[in-house]
Design goal:
By secondary structure, the protein is an alpha/beta fold. Helix content is 47%, strand content 9%. Helix 2 packs antiparallel against helix 3. The protein is elongated and about 90 Å long.
């Protein structure tokens, strides 16, 4: 027995509509999950590299130009010397030659300063540590990122606090 051509086409289109509906439904659920995940608060903490290590630290990033003589490598997960202040700037604040306000301005300027690679890449403008900072922001959506330096835990005037404040903004 031969089926009606219209009935076959109608059945095909009905099946196609159901498949499209299911794809839209699945896609919408995935997009909602992605949106919820993107809205998750980034988690940054700051500590001294000499403070006790706890599980809540997550990824421990040493953000200092120098690793520190005799500092065991198990005190941090990754060392990002490029996120520390320049030696000149660090020495100026430690010697009292510049104010905290001036130090803050100059440190943030250093983070945005283009490097030698930028001069050779006309289409990609890094403007300093933009890509590194965005990577840390991305990681902080999935786990805690603890920014470390050699200053004492209670030190209020430390670049790690400035770095944390910068990372908590849109870069």
């Amino acid at each position: 027995m031969r089926r009606n051509g219209r009935a076959e086409k109608a059945g095909f289109f009905l099946l196609l509509l159901i498949l499209i509906f299911l794809l839209i439904l699945v896609w919408g659920v995935e997009k909602e999950q992605d949106r919820d995940h993107d809205q998750k608060q980034e988690m940054f903490k700051t500590k001294s590299v000499h403070s006790p290590i706890v599980g809540e630290d997550g990824l421990r990033v040493l953000a200092a130009r120098g690793r520190g003589r005799g500092l065991p490598s198990d005190r941090f997960d990754v060392w990002m010397a490029n996120l520390g202040p320049s030696e000149e700037l660090r020495d100026a604040i430690l010697a009292g030659r510049i104010s905290w306000r001036e130090y803050t301005r100059r440190y943030l300027d250093e983070l945005r300063e283009p490097g030698g690679v930028d001069a050779r890449n006309k289409r990609i403008k890094n403007h300093g540590q933009k890509f590194t900072l965005r990577l840390l922001q991305h990681l902080a959506k999935r786990q805690t990122v603890t920014l470390l330096c050699h200053c004492a835990e209670e030190e209020k005037h430390c670049h790690r606090h400035l770095l944390k404040a910068l990372l908590e903004k849109k870069i």
